[in-house]
Amino acid sequence: MGILAEVRACDTRMRGTDLVDAEGVKIGELPAEAFAGELEVPKRDLTAILHRLTEDDVQYVFGDSIRTLAQDEAGVHVTFEHARPGTFDLVVGADGVYSTVRRLAFGPHRNFVRHLGMSGVGFTTGNHLGLDHRGILQSEPGRAVYLFSAADADRMTVSLSFATDSPELDLLDRGQQEEIVRASFDGAGWEVPRLLKEMTTAPDFLFSSACQVEMEHWYTGRVVLVGDAGYCAAPPSGMGTSQALIGAYTLARELAASGADHPAAFAAYQYRVSPFVAANQQHGREAVKMLGAD
């Protein structure tokens, strides 16, 4: 894509993760690649790079959502929450695990979203542990604490994960989610009591459940899915952005090579990317277990 050097300049330069016991005593270490992969950059930086490179050629519309999709030989007829309806040659759904495009074109979420038995909350707080491009992981059956600091030396990212059998927790309000987190970490020592207090005032509180998206086909007619919408590998896999970028690049390449034959392009895209997705989803399942899911 011609942007590797610019992306590398935004590397978080993580140096590894310390494994600690219930008292915070170091008992082991994981290499940086365990969480950061070969190259890790903050999402905001990657988004800014991609937007800047494409803003003159792509029409961006923010603060809107698709309401309906209807396909025929002429194209895909789309209505929106705010914008005027339009007809498009193709629709690419790259709108996440709970994809509106997938729901409208393929069916309800329950048919494709597989819960992996873990939920959790993420937020940032002051870096009172003085972490320097390093992480700390405390894991036990049923729950895990992961802390790290990279891009902003003054801030520490907190992840509190716990075993659960329901993905419906994502639909609760923040107050209910906080209560569930506190109950799940009841009795935990080390830094946990302080982290639970700081959670309540965090402006960037985010609750989510680890899940994967499994589909026989990522396309139907003139609609195709990319990234988490079609093949989420679970957030702990650390491969969401990589899958999305590689999937999008492969899809674009196949469309360019096929001319007007989009069915052939869609099939070739899935054929080429499927082995990569299968490996990442296996890694995602293993990562969830490492982070404390039963």
Automatic annotation (TrEMBL):
<dbReference type="InterPro" id="IPR002938">
    <property type="entry name" value="FAD-bd"/>
</dbReference>
<dbReference type="InterPro" id="IPR036188">
    <property type="entry name" value="FAD/NAD-bd_sf"/>
</dbReference>
<protein>
    <submittedName>
        <fullName>FAD-dependent monooxygenase</fullName>
    </submittedName>
</protein>
<dbReference type="InterPro" id="IPR051704">
    <property type="entry name" value="FAD_aromatic-hydroxylase"/>
</dbReference>
<keyword id="KW-0560">Oxidoreductase</keyword>
<dbReference type="Pfam" id="PF01494">
    <property type="entry name" value="FAD_binding_3"/>
</dbReference>
<dbReference type="GO" id="GO:0004497">
    <property type="term" value="F:monooxygenase activity"/>
</dbReference>
<keyword id="KW-0503">Monooxygenase</keyword>
<feature type="domain" description="FAD-binding">
    <location>
        <begin position="45"/>
        <end position="279"/>
    </location>
</feature>
